[in-house]
């Protein structure tokens, strides 16, 4: 019995908790007649500040802004990209894209040529968490404290250790 209890404490899952109700608005001080206000927010019309090293800005709309999203496990983001930002093609061409999640694994692609991306871009995305966060992979991988073992990073990203020595201090 003790072994089973020990094994169960070692098993961990990370996900939004299962809702106890199908629909549960997170209103602490409901005032009769304010129902619609608790289910509406205008998506930000103005672009966020993209003058940062990443050249992008993420504006989150989640359960904190739309209380009606509580227990629905969804949120929305508006992503702004600066001109000449994340995928700037200077020479040659880039074949870029992404693959949708389960079950279809559908591939979306585009070929970018030099000079294609001269203006700011905006994307809207739906996320499968009611309180999703934003993670910058480079900052997390190369700027962790304490630093991730360079041997692990070199293998994971298929990089030379000298490249890692160059990257890690920048994050």
Automatic annotation (TrEMBL):
SUPFAM superfamilies found in the cross-reference section: RmlC-like cupins
Record-level GO cellular component terms: apoplast
Main location, first listed in the record: secreted
UniProt keyword list: Apoplast, Glycoprotein, Manganese, Metal-binding, Secreted, Signal
Location of the Cupin type-1 domain: 46-116, 117-163
Subcellular location: Secreted, Extracellular space, Apoplast
Listed GO MF terms: manganese ion binding
Pfam families: Cupin_1
PANTHER family found in the cross-reference section: GERMIN-LIKE PROTEIN SUBFAMILY 3 MEMBER 3 (PTHR31238)
Family: Belongs to the germin family.
Protein's recorded name: Cupin type-1 domain-containing protein
Organism, as annotated: Gossypium tomentosum (Hawaiian cotton)
Taxonomic classification: Eukaryota, Viridiplantae, Streptophyta, Embryophyta, Tracheophyta
């Amino acid at each position: 019995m003790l072994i089973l209890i020990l094994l169960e404490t070692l098993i961990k899952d990370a996900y939004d908790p299962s809702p106890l109700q199908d629909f549960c608005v997170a209103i602490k001080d409901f005032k009769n007649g304010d129902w619609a206000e608790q289910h509406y927010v205008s998506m930000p019309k103005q672009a966020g500040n993209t003058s940062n090293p990443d050249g992008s800005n993420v504006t989150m709309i989640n359960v904190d802004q739309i209380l009606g999203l509580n227990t629905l496990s969804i949120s929305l983001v508006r992503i702004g990209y600066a001109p000449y930002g994340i995928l700037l093609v200077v020479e040659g061409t880039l074949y870029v894209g992404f693959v949708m999640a389960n079950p279809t694994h559908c591939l979306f692609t585009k070929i970018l040529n030099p000079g294609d991306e001269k203006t700011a871009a905006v994307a809207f995305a739906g996320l499968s968490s009611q309180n999703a966060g934003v993670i910058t992979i480079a900052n997390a991988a190369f700027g962790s404290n304490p630093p991730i073992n360079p041997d692990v990073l070199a293998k994971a990203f298929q990089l030379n250790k000298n490249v890692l020595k160059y990257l890690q201090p920048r994050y």
